UniProtKB/TrEMBL annotation:
It comes from Afipia massiliensis. This is DUF1116 domain-containing protein. Coiled coil: none annotated. Pfam families: AllG. InterPro entries: AllG-like, OXTCase_su_AllG_h-dom.
Length: 416
């Protein structure tokens, strides 16, 4: 249908023309319009407390204690269950968050501006490895790290970013792809390049050498640091593609541990949801699939711009790490995802595929026609609150979301 083809061409152009730039780190209350006290933003489509999975509930309780709305985890859980907390998706506030995706008023957020379209997107700072809130952690060590990010690290890095005039992100992605990253499970190269970009500015703007050393070490020791920046970048790039009537291009994919949600350009902010699937992958010593929670997180936004599972060919080591097969099979994932996308991104290329661009612009029609569901690289959380990450793997988006979206597009266009 010509209308759809033209609409998809326009949506794809808006995604590719985006010029994302990291410009600041700011407390959530200062940048998320409508965010208020006793409000918790979460990953995925809308969900109520009674339907939340274990790690999501654990993270919510931890966030409530962190903000001082309850004195301990038991009181926090009681407050959440009683209706004393408002829950909303990050996406409803222009933000994204990994795994549980907790965002509350005092948390510092990366600010990414798409200078081409003058829109912004936000994401919390990556907490690092080990027991963390994004995987449902909520003990004293988790809250102490969040406080350090808020009170020490965030201000130091924000000052350096502002003094540098911001950091262009597309070139970092291009270099990361050439160095073995796919920007979902492997962010080592991009995190290292980012540190190289911002490190001198941190040194020039810091007034305390000990604090500076701690902040640099935090980035250097966290291989996943860049993921959260890439997520805000992804949302900043896809948001301008929303609201193009007739377009079947996906502008958001996310999950909350219970439901998977998809948004499509031609239908604006409408959600199409289905039960989320279990990831398949490798588990840390002492854990197995019996311990795993269904998939969660807003991080699938990177797949909507051609990264993560769609760029697996750039990162063959990831295929083995997440249990997706031999490293030599990595290219098969990227080729398959090329069957369900509108085109390629010529700025982000993969050497192993003769410098073909990453497949970009998921088309819900092609997903339904081919039966190929988008592949998402993901971490695996323990199903019980407070334990954390137990593995990593891949997960398929549920086909029902895309079938619903196709029917809704057809109805909107008056096509039987």
């Amino acid at each position: 249908m010509k209308l759809i083809e033209e609409a998809n061409k326009q949506a794809m152009a808006r995604i590719l023309e985006g010029e994302p730039k990291l410009i600041d780190i700011v407390p959530a209350r200062d940048v998320l319009k409508g965010l208020k006290e006793r409000m918790v933003l979460h990953a995925g489509p809308p969900i109520t407390w009674d339907k939340m999975c274990g790690p999501m509930r654990g993270a919510v309780a931890g966030a409530i204690v962190f903000e001082g709305w309850a004195s301990d985890l038991d009181a926090a859980t009681e407050l959440a269950a009683s209706g004393g907390i408002e829950f909303h998706p990050n996406h409803h506030f222009g933000a994204v968050g990994p795994m549980t995706g907790m965002t509350t008023v005092s948390m510092p957020l990366f600010v990414v501006e798409n200078t081409r379209f003058s829109n912004r997107a936000y994401c919390a700072i990556n907490e690092g490895l080990g027991k963390v809130m994004r995987f449902g952690g909520n003990d004293a060590s988790v809250l102490a790290r969040l406080a350090w990010l808020r009170d020490v690290f965030g201000p130091v890095l924000a000052k350096a970013i502002r003094a540098r005039g911001g950091i262009e992100l597309k070139s970092i992605i291009a270099r990361g792809l050439s160095m073995g990253d796919e920007m979902h499970q492997r962010n080592l190269a991009c995190s290292s390049v980012f540190l190289r970009e911002v490190g001198p500015s941190m040194a020039r703007t810091s007034t305390d050498n000990a604090v500076l050393a701690d902040c640099i070490a935090f980035i250097a020791q966290n291989d996943q640091f860049f993921l959260n920046i890439a997520m805000a970048m992804g949302k900043a790039m896809t948001d301008p593609a929303k609201g193009i009537r007739g377009s079947t291009v996906v502008t958001a994919m996310c999950r909350n541990g219970t439901d998977f949600g998809v948004r499509v350009s031609g239908l604006g902010d409408q959600w199409f949801t289905a039960p989320v699937e279990m990831p398949e992958g490798l588990y840390f010593a002492g854990y197995s699939e019996k311990d795993a929670n269904p998939d969660m997180g807003d991080s699938a936004i990177v797949e909507t711009i051609g990264l993560g599972g769609f760029a697996m060919a750039a990162s063959p080591a990831v295929a083995g790490f997440i249990g997706a097969g031999a490293p030599s099979s990595a290219g098969n994932f990227t080729r398959a995802m090329g069957e369900i996308t509108v085109g390629q991104n010529p700025e982000w290329t993969i050497a192993a595929l003769d410098f073909a661009g990453v497949p970009t612009g998921i088309d819900v029609r092609l997903v339904v026609e081919t039966g190929l569901a988008p592949i998402i690289n993901t971490g695996i959380a323990h199903r019980e609150p407070g334990i954390g990450q137990v593995g990593a793997g891949v997960v398929k988006a549920p086909m029902a979301c895309f079938q619903q979206a196709v029917r809704a597009i057809a109805k909107d266009l008056g096509v039987s």
